[in-house]
Specification:
Blueprint: E1 2-8, H1 16-34, H2 39-46, H3 50-55, H4 69-72, H5 80-100, H6 103-124, H7 136-149, E2 154-159, E3 162-167, H8 168-185, H9 192-205
Antiparallel strand pairs: 1-2, 2-3
Helix pairs in contact: 1-2, 1-5, 1-6, 5-7, 6-7, 6-9, 7-8, 7-9, 8-9
C-alpha cells in the first residue's frame, strides 16, 4: 500500500477547476447516499454499463441514453473510501496540471480522458452489465501528465504506515506497475484497464492542452 498525502510542487494560480471537480464529486456522492431514490438506483441509472452501449438501456437503467453515461459515470463512486482516495489523488496532482493548462483546458482534458478510460473498459468487457463508476480513469490521466511535466517533484507518501519521500517519477512508475499487476491478476472489482488507459492517454494527450509560454 503506497498512499500519497502531499507533494512539494507549489502552483502559481489558484486551482479553481480542481476544487470544482472535487466539490462536484462530493455533491454527487452525497446525492447517491442521501437522495430520494437510494444509492443503488442512482448508481445504476448513471453508471457506465458496457452492455448498454451496444444493446441499449437495460430495464433497470432507463433515465439517460447510454452514451451520456460516458460522462456521468465518472462523478459517481462506490463508497466513501473510493471517493476519498480519488479526491486525494485529484487534489495532490490535479492542481499542478491545471496550473500548466487553464481551468477550462484542464476540464476538457479531464472529461476527455475519462471517456477514453470508459471506452477501454467497454472494449475489454463489451457484454458486461456491471456498473463502472468513479473518477479513477480521468485522475489516472492527470497522473500521466504529472509524470512528464513534474518528474522531479517530491511526493510524500505512506508506505503502509511508514512515511516516505520520493520523486514523482519513482512514485508514479511504482503506481503504474501496481495497476499492471492488478490488471494481470484481475484483483477485486477495480477497473484496472481504465487506470492503465487513463494514465497512457494522459501521457499522450496532455501536451495538447498546455498553455503557451
Amino acid at each position: 500500500m503506497l498512499l500519497p498525502y502531499k507533494d512539494v510542487n507549489p502552483t502559481r494560480h489558484f486551482p479553481f477547476m480542481t476544487i470544482i471537480l472535487i466539490l462536484a464529486n462530493i455533491a454527487v456522492f452525497l446525492y447517491q447516499v442521501f437522495g430520494p431514490y437510494g444509492f443503488d438506483v442512482i448508481s445504476r441509472q448513471f453508471a457506465l454499463i458496457p452492455y448498454e452501449l451496444h444493446k441499449g438501456n437495460l430495464p433497470d437503467s432507463t433515465w439517460i441514453p447510454p452514451f451520456l453515461s460516458l460522462g456521468t459515470y465518472m462523478f459517481l463512486h462506490a463508497g466513501p473510501g473510493h471517493l476519498a482516495f480519488n479526491m486525494l489523488f485529484l487534489w495532490i496532482f490535479g492542481n499542478n496540471i491545471e496550473d500548466r493548462m487553464s481551468p477550462f483546458s484542464f476540464l476538457v482534458f479531464y472529461l476527455l480522458t475519462g471517456v477514453i478510460s470508459a471506452l477501454a473498459f467497454e472494449a475489454i468487457f463489451p457484454g458486461s452489465d456491471v456498473n463502472l463508476v468513479g473518477a479513477s480513469g480521468a485522475i489516472s490521466a492527470v497522473l500521466g501528465a504529472y509524470l512528464f511535466l513534474f518528474p522531479r517533484a517530491q511526493v510524500h507518501a505512506l508506505l503502509f504506515i511508514f512515511p516516505v519521500r520520493m520523486s514523482a517519477l519513482v512514485f508514479l512508475i511504482i503506481w503504474f506497475i501496481m495497476q499492471i499487476s492488478g490488471f494481470l491478476g484481475q484483483e477485486g472489482s477495480v477497473a484496472w484497464i481504465s487506470h492503465i488507459t487513463g494514465f497512457v492517454s494522459g501521457i499522450i494527450l496532455h501536451r495538447f492542452f498546455l498553455k503557451r509560454r
